[in-house]
Amino acid sequence: MKNDQALIEYLLRLADTDMVLAQRFCEWCGNAPALEEEMAMLNAGLDLIGQARNWYDYAAELLDDGRDADHLAFRRNEREYRNLLIAEQPRGDYAVTTVKQFFFDVWHHLVLTRLTESSDERIAGIAAKALKEVTYHRRRSTEWMLRLGQGTDESHRRLADAVENLWRFTYELADTDDVEDQLAEAGIGAGNVGDAWRAEVARVFAEAGLELPEPARHFYMDGKNGKHTEHLGFLLAEMQYLPRAYPDATW
Amino acid sequence: MYAQQVDTGSKGLKSLDDMSPEERHFQEKVDAEVRIEPKNWMPDGYRKTLIRQISQHAHSEIVGMLPEGNWLTRAPSLKRKLQLMAKIQDEAGHGLYLYSAMETLGADRDEEIEKLHRGEVKFSSIFTYPTLSWADMGAIGWLVDGAAIVNQVPLQRCSYGPYARAMIRVCKEESFHQRQGYEILLTMMREGTDEQKEMVQDAINRFWWPSLMMFGPSDTNSPNSAQSMAWKIKRHSNDELRQRFLDQTVPQLEFLGCTAPDPDLKWNEETGHYDFGEINWQEFFDVLKGHSPCGIERIQQRKKAIDDGQWVRDAAVAYAEKQKANDAA
Amino acid sequence: MADWTLFEVFVRSKHGLNHKHVGSVHAADATMALENARELYTRRSEGVSLWVVPAEQITASAGDEKEPFFDPADDKVYRHASFYKLPPEVDQM
Ligand SMILES: [Fe+2]
Ligand SMILES: [Fe+2]
Ligand SMILES: [Fe+2]
């Protein structure tokens, strides 16, 4: 694959993952366990959509086929979406949301940190701004891991259940594929952050009183290449309903 | 308004001469536009009425997130999604500012919220109406937040300091809400398809009357209203505010190229105001009594969120206690 | 019944002023109170520093205080009315 082609793929992965996670945050609106958490989740959601828009904009420029950021977000189907599998999993209870967010935030933080050094200045710039926001996201989800892990018997049980359910999707966070390796070699992409990711997760798990499972192994699914769980289709159906139902409309 | 039909417990106004020295001093401060602060002496009725009014106002902000939240996952573009999210989040913030003001009066937020969930306290009638199309996001921002602004601007000068200050912060944020709503409608009317234009008119048809009802029935002869005015926790009559809202809204309606579902709406040269048709107050009272399109669902959703979140809040408390114990050891 | 503790919040705005009381938040502990205060009171970058104090720890005298207004944020422009360009006929909104 040419570097440009790989870069578009890479940008869409970053954008789609942000977008899908933000959509899950939107689902919490009116349903959060405390009003303060409502505020916090909407803030994080705003950050993620803002980041998604930056990545989409850049991808759209490189694609140069007339599609803009909105088109990329709202008119591609589930086989074309490139988000990480962990992002599309249903929001579940607050333990599920916390674990999803924590796994992602740790990964996101490591990736963005490296991307601030990218030889592609556009990427470095977007990453630098996003990194500030994500540093805060990671701090918050880490704290909630500890609160739920050490809180009550019930919260600990729910947290452990969430880990058991979600762990299988984490191979995408700890592994890279050809696209990522190619861009890392070119000094553009973040490359493999698996070791650092696992070390940080292990540290927090120990403090939260959780057992660290064996590394997750790749299985049939492959979100980065458009092979998703069944959840994504419904998420997109809802999110993309208006632009698809009224293709000629201006909103 | 956001706090409709607040009971003051008053049968009629006391004159300064009938008041105890404390109450008289209090009333003189209020008359002189000096703000009352949490630690100042205040009549029991004033405290209770304010708690009722501010809690209803706060509940309305929080329940008011739901009709818009209904379209948050379906916002049609990145820009619109960001705007709606920021707007809804502001409303959560308004609720929290207000609860915070209410708590300075000695009320407890969680207890007041439980009263809402038990159906003992009301929230604004407007939020019991369903949102049936994307244009409703525009109509709500423009009409509902517009009406709220008309009501809230004078409350920035209300006699109770924390409430007035909360209102100042709220009003600063509200004008973005109204403008984003109007811009949604204007974009659809100017650049949209015929189908979209129909959506806009339909949304206005459904939200027009309920927005006018937000101000509550005429209160010219109400003892509650007279007392609230004397305490300066209400500064204008319902009819006055409704008229003010209507007068500023009709030109905006015409600019959109839309119409109101009111054949009697017309400019009155003599009064310098718009005349309008009879409001269906039966619908308003029905809605307040719970006979409303979505009133039950709104409360169910809020109650479920708080009930389902109990284990989360408990976990946070348990963790905090463990941390404290560790620090002490 | 109150789940979480009431904390009073103080914000120092950008201009090198003192911390000022802005309101309160509920939180299980001080760390959470700081974060909740950040989410609630600094959404439009109104501050550079925050204090939170458990409300029960404050001994208050009676008296008046002035509240700060807040500076606009430079980032999330869509939160501000001026972001919405309306034609002059309706621009007083
Ligand atoms: Fe509001
Ligand atoms: Fe509102
Ligand atoms: Fe509003």
Automatic annotation (TrEMBL), chain A:
Kindly indicate where the leader peptide sits in this chain: none
- Sections of the chain in a coiled coil: none
Q: In this record, what's one Pfam family?
A: PaaA_PaaC
**The organism sits in which domain of life?**
Bacteria
Q: What is this protein called?
A: Phenylacetate-CoA oxygenase subunit PaaC
Species of the source: Alloalcanivorax gelatiniphagus
Protein's gene: paaC
TrEMBL record, chain B:
Give its E.C. classification number: 1.14.13.149
Keywords tagged on the record: Oxidoreductase
Question: Per the record's keyword annotation, is Oxidoreductase included, yes or no?
Answer: yes
UniProt xrefs under Pfam families: PaaA_PaaC
GO molecular function terms here? phenylacetyl-CoA 1,2-epoxidase activity
Q: Where is this region: Disordered?
A: 1-25
Identify the InterPro entries for this entry.
Aromatic_CoA_ox/epox (IPR052703), Ferritin-like (IPR012347), Ferritin-like_SF (IPR009078), PaaA (IPR011881), PaaA_PaaC (IPR007814)
Q: Where is the composition biased (Basic and acidic residues)?
A: 14-25
Q: What is this protein called?
A: 1,2-phenylacetyl-CoA epoxidase subunit A
Q: Please name the source species.
A: Alloalcanivorax gelatiniphagus
Taxonomic lineage = Bacteria, Pseudomonadati, Pseudomonadota, Gammaproteobacteria, Oceanospirillales
UniProtKB/TrEMBL annotation, chain C:
Alphabetical list of InterPro entries matching this protein: PaaB, PaaB_sf
Q: Which UniProt keywords apply?
A: Oxidoreductase
Name the EC number(s). Answer: 1.14.13.149
Q: Which organism is it from?
A: Alloalcanivorax gelatiniphagus
What's its top-level EC category? oxidoreductase
Q: Name one GO molecular function term.
A: phenylacetyl-CoA 1,2-epoxidase activity
Name under which the protein is recorded: 1,2-phenylacetyl-CoA epoxidase subunit B
